Automatic annotation (TrEMBL):
InterPro entries: Class_I_gatase-like, GATASE, Imidazole-glycPsynth_HisH. This is Imidazole glycerol phosphate synthase subunit HisH. Residues 7-206 form the Glutamine amidotransferase domain. IGPS catalyzes the conversion of PRFAR and glutamine to IGP, AICAR and glutamate. The HisH subunit catalyzes the hydrolysis of glutamine to glutamate and ammonia as part of the synthesis of IGP and AICAR. The resulting ammonia molecule is channeled to the active site of HisF. The gene is hisH.
Length: 211
């Protein structure tokens, strides 16, 4: 049975992400909440959750001794499938521009910056259900067709340097990326664990993904 490392660095959505992954796995994978570098480096898949400010989350991740190095070994060297959720997706970026500049993992080039809707009726934070747009043809996103609503709660978004790395968009007073994908890595700005059937579909597809 494949082992999935769900990274524990104190993220507020850790337990809800765990429950959703366990449900999506339906006994086909072992979901392990962990910050053990040895387990992470040898895992079959890695999931990084996250809520809150970029700098605080990056600092908390780096404070777990050996975790960033183990994630890099698993994802970048061994090429195991990776999924970043909300701030977990944002941490894949080159840098975050919240409360100054903070270096990210730099796995996909780009910046995390505050969303600035053109429509004054579009409030920030962006909270609630919103439809995905221009979803790419990709194994992880095959159940998320254009127009399918998912649940967001955020004020910042990951603006990838290369548009080819964007897997889906959303419109909240203006378009911005809702998901990214490159090679064995994928990330979503929305919360699969709060997105009901759409979220479970994405997690199940991630667990079956063979990049």
């Amino acid at each position: 049975m494949q082992r999935v490392a769900l990274i524990d660095y104190g993220s507020g959505n850790l337990r809800s992400a765990e429950k959703a992954l366990v449900r999506a796995a339906d006994g086909r994978a072992e979901i392990v909440v962990t910050h053990d570098p040895g387990f992470i480096a040898a895992a079959d898949r890695v999931v990084l959750p996250g809520v809150g400010a970029f700098a605080a989350c990056m600092g908390a991740l780096e404070a777990r001794t050996g975790v960033v190095e183990a994630m890099t070994q698993a994802v970048r060297t061994r090429g195991v499938p990776f999924l970043g959720i909300c701030v977990g997706m944002q941490l894949m970026a080159t840098r975050g521009l919240e409360f100054g500049e903070t270096a990210g993992l730099d796995w996909i080039a780009g910046d995390v910056r505050r969303i600035e809707p053109d429509d004054p009726a579009a409030k920030v934070p962006h909270m609630g259900w919103n439809a995905l747009l221009d979803v790419i043809d990709h194994p992880v996103f095959r159940g998320l067709k254009d127009g399918r609503p998912v649940y967001f709660t955020h004020s910042f978004a990951f603006f990838a340097k290369d548009p080819a790395d964007v897997a889906a968009y959303v419109d909240h007073g203006g378009r911005f990326p809702a998901a990214v994908a490159r090679g064995n890595m994928a990330g979503v700005q929305f919360h699969p664990e709060k997105s009901q059937g759409a979220g479970l579909s994405l997690l199940a597809d991630f667990l079956e993904w063979r990049p």
